[in-house]
Structure formats: C-alpha cells, structure tokens
From TrEMBL:
GO terms for biological process: cell differentiation; positive regulation of transcription by RNA polymerase II. Residues 1-61 form the MADS-box domain. Signal peptide: none annotated. Residues 95-145 form a coiled coil. InterPro entries: MADS-box/MEF2_TF, MEF2-like_N, TF_Kbox, TF_MADSbox, TF_MADSbox_sf. GO terms for molecular function: DNA-binding transcription factor activity; protein dimerization activity; RNA polymerase II transcription regulatory region sequence-specific DNA binding. It is found in: Nucleus. This is MADS-box protein JOINTLESS. It comes from Arachis duranensis (Wild peanut).
Length: 209
C-alpha cells in the first residue's frame, strides 16, 4: 500500500504551524549533524521563525564559517564584482542586525526577570516597572479565571455526589422497608399455626375384644 503524499503548502493554523516548525527544525539540524559526523563536512544553518526568533547550528564557529563562505564564494563573470560584494555585504549586515535584535530581546527578558538592570535610566526603569505591573495583572486575571473555573467544577462534582448519595439513601430506605414488611408478614403467618397439645395423654386399653 503506497503512502499518501502530503501536499506541501503553508499551514494556516498557527498552533499546528509552530509544532510543525519545531519538528522540522529539529529534523533539519539532526540531518546536518549526521552529515557532519558521516562526511566530516563543515555546516552552518541559520533559521528564523515567524516570530523572528533565531535558531542556528554550526559545526564550528558560525562567524568563521560565514567568513569562510565569503572568501570562497565564486564570482560569476556575468555578474559585476561590485554587485556580488554588495549582496554578500547585505547578507552579513542582515545577519548582524538580526543577531543584535536577538541579543536585545534576550537582554529585555533578563531585565523582566530582575537581572541586568545596571545602566538603565529612570525612564527605562519606569517603563520596565509598568510592563511588570501589567504582566502581573494579566497573570492574576488568568489565575482568578482558572480558580473560578476550578471552584465551579468542584461544585458540580459535589452536586453530583450529593444527588448520588440521596439516591443511595432512597434505595437503602426502600430496601429496609421491604425487609420490615417481609419480617412482619412472616411473624403474622406464624401466629396462625395450630399449637401442639403436649398435655393430652394417650390411653391404651389392653384386653380381649
């Protein structure tokens, strides 16, 4: 049975897209690592997610591999050297810009965790404080919603248990009433049984007919 071919197209669902990106990225890096191990190849991979998050893999120094690539980049005769150099310079510039952007995001994350606060101005500290207050407010709101939902769920479970307990009590009471009725019936029936006369003597007469 042939395996159905999956159509390669953009995934519309954001959650599915993120899951697929994570799996495919890990698979790509694993293949690159295997190629390096099997063939002793120097490999550099740069991947950016839709949220501009940088992922990279290099068998050695990423910067050294980029410089090595620039040194060994073939210049075609049909292309002016200045144009090729301009493209390579633009690629290096974009990489540096994205690397700085990643460093900036990482620094902001550390600052939100209360780290690396030295050198911030009063205005920057005020903005950071506002972000933290807003974040705490949102977290508290979500926590309250989850807490309310949990209480509601527990109340529903309690109501179900109460109803089941009430039904069990009714069944137990009905069973007890049936037992009492059966016992009374047995007692009433036994009261009508004839009593044996143990005091009556039996006289035997012996003689000739």
């Amino acid at each position: 049975m042939t395996r159905k071919k999956i159509e390669i197209k953009k995934i519309d669902n954001i959650s599915s897209r993120q899951v697929t990106f994570s799996k495919r990225r890990k698979g790509l890096f694993k293949k690159a690592q295997e190629l390096n191990t099997l063939c002793d190849a120097e490999i550099a991979l740069i991947v950016f997610s839709t949220t501009s998050k940088l992922f990279q893999y290099a068998t050695s120094s990423m910067q050294q591999l980029i410089e090595r690539r620039n040194q060994h980049s073939p210049i075609q005769k049909s292309d002016p050297p200045s144009a090729v150099l301009q493209v390579e310079s633009g690629a290096a510039s974009n990489y540096d810009m994205l690397r700085k952007k990643e460093e900036q995001k990482a620094r902001e994350l550390r600052q939100l965790n209360g780290e690396d606060l030295q050198g911030l101005t009063l205005n920057e500290l005020n903005k950071l404080e506002e972000q933290l207050i807003k974040g705490l407010s949102n977290a508290s709101k979500v926590k309250d919603e989850l807490f309310t939902q949990e209480i509601y769920t527990l109340k529903r479970k309690g109501a179900v248990l109460t109803e089941e307990n009430h039904k069990l009590k009714q069944i137990s009471s009905s069973f007890a009433n049936e037992q009492r009725s059966s016992f009374k019936s047995i007692v009433c029936n036994s009261s009508y049984l004839p009593e044996e006369d143990h005091g009556r003597d039996t006289n035997l007469k012996l003689g000739l007919p």
